[in-house]
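Q: Hi! Curious about what Aminotransferase looks like structurally. Here's the sequence.
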Amino acid sequence: MKLAARVSQVTPSLTLAIAAKAKAMKAEGIDVCSFSAGEPDFDTPAHIKAAAAKALDEGKTKYGPAAGEPKLKEAIARKLQKDNNLDYKPENVIVTNGGKHSLYNLIVALIDPGDEVIIPSPYWLSYPEMVTLVGGKSVIVPTDASTGYKITPEQLRKAITPKTKLFVLNSPSNPTGMVYTPEEIKALAEVVVDADIYVVSDEIYEKILYDGAQHISIGSLGKEIFDRTLISNGFAKAYSMTGWRIGYLAGPWEIIKAASTIQGHSTSNVCTFAQYGAIAALEDSQDCVEEMRLAFAKRRQVMLDGLNSIPGLSTAKPDGAFYLFPDISKTGLKSLEFCDALIEEHQVAVIPGIAFGADNNIRLSYATDLATIEKGLERLEKFVRSRI
Ligand code: PLP
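A: Let's find out. The predicted structure is below.
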């Protein structure tokens, strides 16, 4: 059988593969400490589940509009106004099967073969794969600890060519956890406007911030940048709704309309009753978001202190998300070798930085309980000491 050529150009998600391996080892009774999944370990808050269950009982089980339940689109438009100072109407919003799907819809809607998409590395691993799937070209701009793993306006300007269509901005970032300051966002916005390209702002971790860090949405900085901005967001991380598969994309009407057409022919609407849970998530109390954030803050400190006490690792302190991204170069191992040996010898699952375009790093998610974090750190220390 001959598969389509595009298939050979994409690689399966390494994060999903490692998380699955860790789960399978656990199922075999092996005592694995997994820091692999980008998934809060909390259950979805009860009031969100209750709203979805009520919708299910009420028979909200039929096809709905492909772009999403009108009530949810209204709630999202209100949220974008209130939290992010973005003035979107419900028709500027499409509800998708997760943030991943919003980004994919956008790429399919916007990127032609040969179009260039600027992606700072380390990047969330699906961005370049999505671009490849539609025949576009990812222009990877490497960043390192010296700029806090953030792209500078000069780097962005240099990467732009006449073929550039889109710049991908992700703050707080997966995998580094870094958060761009309002001044940094403003400087990037100026470059985007000057070059007249689009920016997609992936804001899925916007609620998970520490030490007074502020999230600012690039589209809120004036009409010129607003007209060139797409916002991708979702419910997975802030409300611990990873399995619900609900996200959204907001932006200029022509692009959202195109994304809705694509969705109308690919997935149709997101699970109808699940969307009612999402309405409750946005409209009811936000205490659950804060409770989870506080738990993450505590774990972050424990994990950071632990990593910093391991000679040979160097770990930047991020202000957001739930990941740490230590530099492992002193061990002399590349990231895949490091991760393979770590899981084999000490049953600790972490993600090799190569998956995010950074072979000298590993990614640890601290969206797991403190006991696992403490045990995993001890094992990691033994492993690193054995290698330096
Ligand atoms: N964007 C980033 C940076 C992510 O880390 C993730 C999930 O890991 C997503 C988007 C997609 O989230 P979901 O499709 O679960 O809403």
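A: A fun detail: The mean pLDDT is 96.
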